[in-house]
Each structure stands twice: as structure tokens, then as C-alpha cells.
Write a structure and sequence with these properties.
The chain has 151 residues and is an alpha+beta fold. It contains eight helices and four strands. The two termini are 30 Å apart. The structure holds inosine-5'-diphosphate and magnesium ion.
Length: 151
């Protein structure tokens, strides 16, 4: 499967509940490749661009208020089929329906505070990555572990 990139956010509830390490750890141990990482406090303008598809929804105002309520951790992960893989690891949007073992299924109870965001398609991932990261902030690197261990 071709390598893809996706944007993941640990939402303000995840940061404030000290779930950042757990969430990053799941992607690391799954074998995904980290290419971008930052802590930032989203303003209303960025929230509007990020959630543009939801502008007309009844929950839009509460969604923007929530995502701007405190800092988020933004990450770019790379790997084969990573867009769908991250969505599967996140669990269903409504934590009431999220399977145990998923991030939301293990850590969330309400749809408004569901801990994590992941892009929902490859083209949308490219757009979302561009909202949060400049090209220079995406780091091109490969593991040297095998060389260090095996000489
Ligand atoms: P996703 O985060 O799983 O991609 P989306 O449908 O894109 O789900 O919705 C974006 C976010 O908006 C959700 O993660 C959730 O926090 C919030 N949201 C979605 N539907 C509702 C709703 O019916 N009521 C309140 N909040 C919602
Ligand atoms: Mg979505």
C-alpha cells in the first residue's frame, strides 16, 4: 500500500487530561512514522478553516468553542494507508459507538469531547496538513536503528 500522510490533533480535552503520551505512543508502537509535531492554541480563524465542512451544522459553534478552548497537539504521521488506519485506531466519532481498544473507545464518553481528530481522506489530509504546518516544519528522516544495532 502506498505511503500516505495524515493530520492528527490531540484535542484540548486530550491535552488537559494528559493523554498526549498515550496517543502518540499508540501511533509509534503501531510503526507509523512521525514527520511533524507541535503544540499550539488554535484561534477561531484556524478552527473555521479546519472545520469548514461543518459550518452549517447545528453543533458548529460549540465545536469551534471547544477546539479553541486550550492548546492542541498537532502531528503528521506517515505510513501505508495511514489515513484509514488512524481513523480505525481513533474509533467512531461518537464514543458511545467506539469500540474498546480504540482511542475514543478507551478514553472518551461524549461526542463533543472525543479527544482526537484525524483527517478523513488523502486529499483532505493534504489540505489539513497545510493549515497546521509549513513545508519546512515537515521533517524528512529515516531510522538509523538497524545500522546502530547491527553496525
Ligand atoms: P470526526 O472527528 O470523527 O471526523 P466529524 O463528523 O468530522 O467527525 O465531526 C467533527 C467533530 O465535530 C467530531 O469529532 C465531534 O467532536 C463533533 N461532532 C460531530 N457530530 C456532532 C454532533 O452531532 N454533536 C456534537 N458534536 C459533534
Ligand atoms: Mg471529520
Amino acid at each position: 500500500m502506498a505511503d500516505e500522510r495524515t493530520l492528527v490533533l490531540v484535542k484540548p480535552d486530550g491535552v488537559q487530561r494528559s493523554l498526549v503520551g498515550d496517543i502518540i505512543g499508540r501511533f509509534e508502537t503501531r510503526g507509523l512514522h512521525l514527520v511533524g509535531l507541535k503544540l499550539l492554541h488554535m484561534d477561531r480563524e484556524l478552527a473555521g478553516r479546519h472545520y469548514t465542512e461543518h459550518r452549517e451544522k447545528p453543533f458548529y459553534e460549540s465545536l469551534v468553542a471547544f477546539i479553541t478552548a486550550g492548546p492542541v497537539v498537532a502531528m503528521v504521521w506517515e505510513g501505508p494507508g495511514v489515513v484509514a488506519l488512524v481513523r480505525a485506531m481513533m474509533g467512531a466519532t461518537d464514543p458511545a459507538a467506539s469500540a474498546p481498544g480504540t482511542i475514543r473507545g478507551d478514553h472518551a464518553l461524549t461526542i463533543g469531547a472525543n479527544v482526537v481528530h484525524g483527517s478523513d481522506s488523502v486529499p483532505r489530509a493534504a489540505e489539513e496538513i497545510g493549515l497546521f504546518f509549513s513545508a519546512a516544519e515537515l521533517v524528512d528522516w529515516r531510522s538509523d536503528v538497524a545500522r546502530w544495532l547491527q553496525g
